[in-house]
Amino acid sequence: MCDELTADDNSRLLASDVLTRRRFGVMTGAAGLSLLLPLPANAKEVAGRDVTVDTPDGKADAYFVAPTGGKHPGVLIWPDIMGLRPAFRQMADRLAQSGYAVLTVNQFYRSTKAPFLAPGESFDQPAVRERIGPWRAKLTSDAVVGDGKAFIAFLDAQPEVDARRGLASTGYCMGGPMVLRTAAAVSDRVRAGASFHGAALVTDASDSPHLLVPRLKGSYLFAIAENDDQRSPTDKDKLREAFTAAKVPAEIEVYAGAMHGWCPPDSRVYNQAQAEKAWARMLALFGTAL
């Protein structure tokens, strides 16, 4: 949802009796947890580098990481509204350790370099929302499609990427719709997509992301926050209807007790158990689709 209502939800949770002392410790230590994410079994040695990707609108800063040997399926990660930052670099490293070549992008490159948040800043803060709002306004459907095509082309050009195999894309919060727009625009390459607490996947607009489902190929995962579902309870049904009608496989699930933003380990509402479940479902999807 990425809005004031979600921020209020998260603030109420953090202040409520529902939040146990143990869980509060997990959340407030989340920034450190980005360095403590579990290693996958048989983790591969990886190497990462900062890269610049040419797009129709300029040069995007990004982070690329892959195993140090061989060729691997590519994965494009669209971060949440707080952008490319240490937590997402750690998540990219972890995915690469499982055998993928991963590009994590700064989708706000038209406006700023990443990272753009100072320590302690969060989208929950009105001043931060006011600063990011104009940057987000530039991310029109056409802009995202152009970016997605450029990012996929970049991945395919890397020596670590096996271009004979399908690619995947994942997105968090505002990145969820970006997954669908990219997958629809480059359907000959994208064979898997995963949205985690995706925002505005179903809207009344003529270019709503869920209307792109007939153009998709491969298989998809939608991990939905409980409070997002409570606010828009029919969205998941419309998603299921769209995927069923298009005969495109999709796993669509509401994660009980998980608040919007629960997956990145630096989130105020990081839910380790549910984040690990979502991660495992993503790896299972990639294992069969790629």
Descriptive account of the structure:
The structure is a single chain. This protein has 290 residues and is of the alpha/beta class. Helix content is 39%, strand content 19%. The protein has ten helices and eight strands. The chain is globular.
The percentage helix is: 25-40%
Return the average pLDDT rounded to an integer.
91
Roughly what fraction of the amino acids lie in strands? Answer: 15-25%
Global structural class: alpha/beta
> What is the CA-based Rg, rounded?
18 Å
Q: Helical stretch count? A: 10
Order of SSEs, N→C? HHHEEEHEHHEHEEHHEH
Low-confidence stretches: 17-35
Strand order of the largest sheet: 1-2-4-3-5-6-7-8
Biggest sheet record: 8 strands, mixed
N- and C-termini, Cα separation: 29 Å
